[in-house]
Fold this protein.
Amino acid sequence: MDQALIRNFSIVAHIDHGKSTLADRLLQVSGAISERDLKEQVLDDMDLERERGITIKASAVTIDMNVDGRTYMFNLIDTPGHVDFHYEVDRALAACDGALLVVDATQGVQAQTVANAYAAVNNNLEIIPVINKIDLPSAAPEDAAIEIEHVLGISADNVQFVSAKSGVGIGDLIRAIVRHLPPPKGEPNGPLQALIFDSEYNDYRGVICYLRIVNGTIRKGQRVLLMGRQRTYLVTELGKFRPQMSPCDELAAGETGYVVASIKRLQDVTVGDTITDAGQPALQPLPGYQPPQHMVFCDFYPSSGESYDALREALEKLSLNDASFSFAPQHSDALGPGFRCGFLGLLHMDIVQERLERECGVSVVQTAPSVTYEVVPHDGPVRRVESAGDLPDMGMIAELREPIIETQIITPADAIGSIMQLAEQRRGVYRKTEYLSPQRVLLTYEFPFNEILYDFYDKLKSVTRGYGTMDYHVIGYRAGDLVKLDILVNGVPVDALSLICHRSKAEARGRRFLIKLRREIARHQFEIALQAAIGSKVIARETIKPFRKNVTAKCYGGDVTRKRKLLEKQKAGKKRMKTIGRVDIPQKAFMTVLEPED
């Protein structure tokens, strides 16, 4: 197809601002999907996405749109809105020439709106602001347009007003896409350069790569080279998403689609790699993607009845489809062999665990998450640790640095005091205040990442009555008065329960954690001591009393020494059992650290 008739764009927005509904409406208007097959969130094909009402994976689709008598090819990518999946957004934007920035007419500019706008600008994309939900009674589209101009610096003259649900304004939006978004600039007759922006694994077809053809043309039956791995393959199938996989004979510069080339090994494909012609390869690969910066880590171990190999295979398949997730072998004295996994946030971690159980049929034991820290030893280079169990002895550490994030909070003006109080409790450092309107404020804070990891967002929603939103990004590491809080069960440290926290909060946190842990661990035949310690100093203790049999019940008379002898015998047995007994720690006990603070 003539490149002048191609438009490649992403739909980006804050959570619940209507990205997927707008994609559904464009599919319906183009005739790519019939009225009978139309359903909400057409492009969200995961059960998890439908149940939670969120987009987890970016979804590409090609539609033919008739505009003023000419047929245009729209290659659009619907993207997630949650901050944990921002890497998906970055990958989608790198494969596009423009973006539709959707804003809810009832809520205005939100934290992720700002983040997505900056991401699009960094990728040198043309932006069309779209104000959605203009048919709602509480809609204020003009105010939202003024906010877009004030906060993002995008002219309000280019704003498109639509209702994705009812279809109002969709025709004007389609014409704006044709008019304002640029066509691709690739050379169809040049050396083949195709960017792999996503991939998935199929048991029957092997690895399926999602491509954006930047230069050249790829054809069925062509022998291609993956430049990163330097491996050649024969293309057995090409196609486009319409929205189902639809085979075709070739894909030219500017088009997006998928390729099947009998790639059997999961390790041979890397998202961001370049595909070129094996006979006449391109001189150099495309820039690709920056590797994701994993900030949250936790351990996955096979649960009882599951095998280590089954868990490894499931993680390999999942990591191919989710490039922002990583794993490495790990061993725990308490739980045996498992994997240390890296995530972008807590929601990302929760989604990965649920996908493992649903899609791969693997049940796992998951430890409490932690962030990365930088350790500066007295002698030797600076290194990063991903859990408290990896810390060297505190006497060998000159400095322990924690990750610092810059957080942008958009809130109603009357909640500023409550947010400042919340920020003070979490060791937040105030930076600036910016008024978006008389009623809405943008606050900028710096927080230690560990302080907002667990329940900060829930507290933020609570103090702002549900109207507060936040976005964050890591700005570096900073030294702090941090200590390793060891949790001892029966005098034995359990690395999977240990954590790093600020010294001022160590005692309160350790005591609260032990109380919760005591409720989760069942009583045994012997007394179980739960202790929180910093180094060799125990700062908190809880005791789980043992089951006790009344061994003197049969003594209905006689000398008291007979009863005493039975009690001493029972006591000796309890002592011996405590020495050799094993405490069963349930899965829920590892997650008690995630429960909100009282």
Notes: Residues 483-594 form a domain with the Alpha-Beta Plaits fold (CATH 3.30.70.2570). The chain has a mean pLDDT of 84. DSSP finds 14 helices and 32 strands in the chain. Residues 210 and 258 are 4 Å apart (CA to CA).
